[in-house]
Write a structure and sequence with these properties.
Layout: E1 8-13, H1 23-34, E2 35-36, E3 41-47, H2 54-57, E4 62-68, E5 78-82, H3 101-111, E6 117-123, H4 136-139, H5 142-155, E7 161-162
Parallel strand pairs: 1-3, 1-4, 4-6
Antiparallel strand pairs: 2-7, 5-6
Helix pairs in contact: 1-5
């Protein structure tokens, strides 16, 4: 059986060691546990990967990212940023190990291989303290985040189906 080359990425972002900062990784991992997607869709635990994310973004047709985002709203607020509404900039860093998502997107845009569709589904975090557990305000919204992933995929005409319950 020949596997199709991935053309679409779903990327969970964040540091799972910093409470709500890890919400993107947790949401995408839970989405993958609940749903199946076509073989040309790649689901990625992007963590806090920086430059290592470039191959999962550059040249892809569509990229959906899920992350904690500062929208200057109340904790738990969920918003979406798409295409040119997503800021891309290189900021001064202490080292290349500190490259963030906006820096990576700037590099991809400069390469000319930006995806046709780029979307970030973000949730306003409550806490970025060290800790493995998300705050209840954010944890309680994970199902809504997963529904937003499914909704965006449907908007992009990408089928996803619930997995059969485990017996």
């Amino acid at each position: 059986m020949h596997l199709k080359e991935p053309t679409i990425s779903i990327i969970g972002l964040g540091n799972i060691l910093m409470t709500d900062e890890g919400v993107g990784v947790h949401a995408v991992n839970e989405f993958e546990r609940r749903y199946t997607v076509p073989e040309h869709v790649e689901i990625v635990d992007g963590g806090a990967a920086g430059l290592d994310l470039i191959p999962f973004i550059e040249g892809r047709e569509k990229v959906l990212m899920v992350d904690a985002v500062n929208f200057d709203q109340d904790p738990g607020y969920i918003g979406e940023l798409e295409n040119d509404a997503i800021p891309a900039r290189i900021t001064q860093k202490a080292s290349m190990h500190h490259l963030g998502l906006m820096d990576v997107l700037c590099i991809v845009r400069m390469s000319g291989n930006i995806p046709k569709e780029l979307c970030i589904i973000g949730i306003q975090p409550k806490s970025l303290e060290l800790g493995l557990d998300m705050t209840p305000e954010i944890w309680d919204k994970k199902d809504i985040l997963i529904e937003r992933i499914v909704s965006k995929l449907k908007e992009w005409n990408i089928p996803c189906a619930l997995r059969s319950p485990q017996k």
